[in-house]
Amino acid sequence: VCLLDGLLLLALALPCGTGARANMPVGTPIHRLMVDPYIAVVAGALATCNIPLAFLEPTIANWMKESMGASEWEVGLTWLPAFFPHVLGVYVTVRLAAAYPHLQWFYGALGMAIIGASSCLVPACRNFGQVIIPLCGICFGIALVDTALLPTLAFLVDVRHVSVYGSVYAIADISYCVAYALGPIVAGQIVHTMGFAQLNLGMGLANVLYAPVLLFLRNVCQMKPSHSERNILLEEGPKGLYDTIKMEERKG
To answer: What are the record keywords, sorted (predicted)?
Structure first.
């Protein structure tokens, strides 16, 4: 699949020439984006909402075998049903965002509340049929958070920085990686010292407590482009193809 994708990229996404690349805008450095409080809140939400998934993947198999005597096929199929509510969560969030775009922060907060409640329910499950229900809730909540907050990152860059998105989505990937890097290391130690139930309660509490922090983003949709690097770029007059196009759009 990767080889096929690479061949398609070579055929369809031809590399830019040096002249075209020289006319492209320079994005805001990643370290400056990371200290933007709005971007930091979104990055924290992305990391926190993925912690339950990252921490359960290396620990739930042993817990299922010890607590409910789960068979190998049950352990192997544990996460399969959760795929469908994840897709449903993406679809629902896209439709809601199209109808009520000013509530993106609320969709993310609701997703974190669902993740928190579902994480707390996992230790109470006693068989395979029961355990897939909170796992579906976790994946549904993650879909809400990701689908609502990733576009918010792009909007924040548009209104507060230069409209170049590579660095801000690198921050999103870093947030995911933090959760998944800690999972195999921290989760196993917590289960060993404190127990599986305490692990899930802690993850659920972290998500529930972080959800109100997203209130900080409630006025993001009302932001207008400030006197930022993006505006300075446009006000200096067109210097290249990109700037000329943006100037014409602005006049229009």
So the answer is: Glycoprotein, Membrane, Neurotransmitter transport, Signal, Transmembrane, Transmembrane helix, Transport
* Beta carbons of 137 and 85 less than 8 angstroms apart: yes
- Burial status of residue 146 (CB atoms within 10 A of its CB: 0-12, 13-18, 19 or more): buried
Considering its fold, how many domains does the chain have in total?
1
Cβ neighbours for 51, distance < 8 A, ≥ 6 positions apart:
179, 182, 183, 203, 206, 207
215-242 average pLDDT score: 61
Specify the pTM.
Answer: 0.81
* Closest CA relative to residue 201, chosen from 119, 86, 135, 81: 119
Query: Which CATH number goes with the domain that contains 53?
Result: 1.20.1250.20
Is 107 among the domain residues? yes
pLDDT tens, 143-161?
A: 999 999 999 988 898 888 8
Domain membership of residue 186 (yes or no) is yes
Domain region containing 162: 28-221
CA–CA dist 67, 126 (Å, integer) = 7
Question: Per residue in 54-112, pLDDT tens?
Answer: 999 999 999 999 999 989 999 999 999 999 999 999 999 999 999 998 899 999 999 99
